[in-house]
Amino acid sequence: MKILVTGGTGYIGSHTLVDLMDNGFEVISVDNQSNSDIGVLENIRLIAGKSVKNYSIDLCDKEKTRIIFEENKIDGIIHFAAFKSVNDSVSMPLEYYHNNLNSLLNVLSLMNEYKVNNFIFSSSCSVYGNTQELPVTEMTPTQEAECPYARTKQIGEKIVEEFILANPWFKSILLRYFNPAGAHESCLMGESPINKAANLVPVITETGIGKRDAMTVFGTDYDTRDGSCIRDYIHVMDLANAHTKALQYLINNILDKAEIINLGIGEGVSVLEAIKAFETTSGQKLNYSIGPRREGDVVAVYANKQKAESLLGWKPTRTIDDIMRTAWAWEKKRSSQKRNKYHIN
Ligand code: WQD
User: How many domains does the chain have?
Assistant: First the structure.
């Protein structure tokens, strides 16, 4: 089976390419490196023992994207390619709607033309908004999106669902990620933000390595066990394996609608607990201060993972300690390679 992974040189995409190859799939990638480094292809080859062909094409260019469908008989597509920064989406909404929606529309319309019927869509727990219902199940109603990024995921899900209603031969699983983090056990790849990291775990490791003098905990006056926000951090390798299992399920089953599946480990970890986990696994104190709340943050969100376990036979095996251990090893490796060329203030 030949699988096209869009966003294949990105963080989750690259880890998923490796997991798919480890499970016998033939893979190709399309990624224009808008937020990734083409060098990751070499690391994928070192880990998986096989090279991956990447088409450096912008999916918003339908006629260029068509080349991939002309040159390959594609059996399924895992669609990661999208802009994903919450903050950037607030300051650049048009770019987010244009990029995230036009790329999706082009992929779906070419799948329709070339009759490719297996589609996995990368969605996000942010479609739930500020829900009070915890743990979050796939039946939890979605709330008003907190930002344009989250709304592109809500609209994307609707586009896929309505495409299926009009084309029953088409099958899709919508995967709602909680908080992906950590790096590959081989330390050959991990989160490599081109822009300044905003997510908690890379901010922690950048602070630990000295790229930042200190980090700020955005509020400890929330109604949680230690006052800081709670999230469901899922190791990127567990997340990658969930995509392989979802693809296997999709290929082997008839679906009468888009199947929505949460991907989290089913446990909440607070910001202060995450910092503690870093300090314990790295053996060093982290320089942080307590600051004001961040606009748009939800107090707590974590998944009910039963559907992914029962439907896909998927079991997350890694903890916040594994996330911090691998993320820290990757940060040290990455920084030594760059010899601390830059310092983030
Ligand atoms: C986690 C917690 C911050 C940085 C976002 C997207 C979501 C998904 C994951 C794609 C929050 C706190 C953070 C810092 C801090 N992305 N924090 N100091 O906002 O939960 O989720 O990324 O699917 O869609 O919304 O992740 O890592 O930014 O924040 O205190 O310097 O860490 O306040 O409580 P978030 P995050």
Answer: 2
Q: Which atom of ligand 1 is nearest to the CA of 122?
A: 23
3-class secondary structure, 216: strand
User: Active-site residue numbers?
Assistant: 149
53-55 and 118-124: which strand pairing?
A: unpaired
- Determine if the pTM surpasses 0.90: yes
Question: For residue 30, what are the contacts with CB-CB under 8 A and spacing of at least 6?
Answer: 4, 5, 6, 7, 8, 54, 55, 56, 57, 59, 65, 68, 81
Same domain for 116 and 209? no
With beta carbons less than 8 A apart as the criterion, state whether 284 and 210 touch. no
- Check whether residue 210 and residue 121 sit in a common domain: no
Hey, whose CA ends up nearest to atom 11 of ligand 1?
229
Domain around 324: 200-231+266-336
Atom of ligand 1 nearest to the CA of 291: 30
Say if residue 64 is in the same domain as residue 158. Answer: yes
The pick from 234, 294, 302, 323 for probing ligand 1's pocket by mutation, whose C-beta has the most ligand atoms within 8 angstroms, reads 294
Instruction: Please report, for the domain that includes residue 273, its CATH number.
Output: 3.90.25.10
Residue 194 lies in a domain: no
Pocket of ligand 1 (CB under 6 A): 84, 86, 124, 126, 177, 179, 198-200, 203, 215-218, 229, 231, 271, 294, 297
Examine the pLDDT at 155 and tell me if it is beyond 90. Answer: yes
Q: Using 50, 70 and 90 to split pLDDT, how confident is the model at 130?
A: confident
> Is residue 25 in a domain?
yes
d(CA 162, ligand 1 centre) in Å: 30
Residue 210 and residue 122 in one domain: no
| Tens-digit pLDDT profile for residues 65-122 | 999 999 999 999 999 999 998 889 999 999 999 999 999 999 999 999 999 999 999 9
